[in-house]
Amino acid sequence: MLRTFVSALAGVFLAGAASAATVDYTNSQTNPGGPALSCQVGSVNGIWDFLGTSCSVAYGNAGLGVTATFDPRPTQIDGTLLGRAERLILDFGRDTVWNSITFGLWDRNDDVQLSFADGPSFIYGPGTSDNTISLGGIVSRALSITAFGEFPQDGILIGNDEFTVASIDVAPVPLPAAGWMLIAGLGGIATMRRRKRQA
Q1: Where do transmembrane segments lie in this chain (predicted)?
Q2: Which is the most buried residue in 22, 39, 179, 182, by most CB within 10 A?
Q3: Which residues pair with 90 in a beta bridge?
Q4: H-helix or E-strand spanning residue 38
Q5: How close are the terminal C-alpha atoms of the chain, in Å?
C-alpha cells in the first residue's frame, strides 16, 4: 500500500514538473482558468487621479483588456485620458514558472511594463512587431502588465498603447531536490517492509 502511494505521488510530481500549460484568453467571455485576474488604473505621474480609479477586467475576441472611467478603448489595456495608465494583474497565488506572454492588437506604437511580484520589472517596446515576449522561466506568483508609453513618454496627451493579453505560457515550479530525496526514502522504506514480510 505504501509502495502504491509512493508511486502515485512520484507520478504526480513528475507530471507536474514536466507539463507546461498555455492559457488562451481569446474568444472567451469568462476566465478560462489559470491565474486570478484583477486591474488597476491611475496616472503615471500622480496628478490625474481625480478621474477615478475604478476598473474591471474586459474580455474580448483579441484577449484580455481593462475598462476604466473615461476609457477611449474599453476592451484593451491602454492609456486613458491625460496620461493615465491601465494595469492588468494575473495572480496564481503561488510560485509559477512564467515562460512567455502573447499580446493581441500589438503594434509598433505599444509599450508595456511587466512587473513580477517580488521579482524583476522591465519595459518592452516600442519598435517591434513581435507580439510574443519570452519571459525566460521567471518564477513568481503574479505578473502585472501596465500600458507604459503614455504622456510624457510618447509625447502626446493620449498614449498610443492599446493592446490585449492573448495568452500566457506557464508551468508548475519543479519539485526541489529535497522532494525527490523524500520520495526515494519512502520507496526504500516500502522495499524494506516488503522484504521483512517475505522473510
Answers
A1: 173-192
A2: 39
A3: 37, 143
A4: strand 36-43
A5: 18
Grid cell in block for residue 28: 472567451
Whether omega before 32 lies within 30 degrees of 0, making that bond cis, reads no
Of 154, 163, 144, 179, the residue nearest 41 (C-alpha)? 144
Tens digit of pLDDT per residue, the chain (199 long)? 444 443 444 444 444 444 789 999 998 888 888 899 999 987 655 555 666 678 999 999 999 999 987 788 899 998 765 667 899 999 999 999 999 999 999 988 888 899 999 889 998 877 566 899 999 999 999 999 998 765 545 445 455 788 999 999 999 998 775 455 567 677 767 666 676 676 6
Element of type H or E holding 179: helix 177-198
CATH fold of 20-173, please? Answer: Jelly Rolls (2.60.120)
Give the CA count within 13 Å in the CB-facing half-sphere of 27: 0
Q: Count of residues for the chain?
A: 199
Other C-beta atoms within 10 Å of 30: how many?
A: 6
Closest among 159, 125, 167 to 143, alpha carbons compared:
167
Read off the amino acid at residue 133: I
- Contact, 191 vs 7, CB < 8 A? no
Determine the Cα–Cα distance for residues 54 and 59; give it in Å rounded to an integer: 17
Find all residues with CB under 8 Å of 36, minimum gap 6, and list them. 90, 91, 92, 93
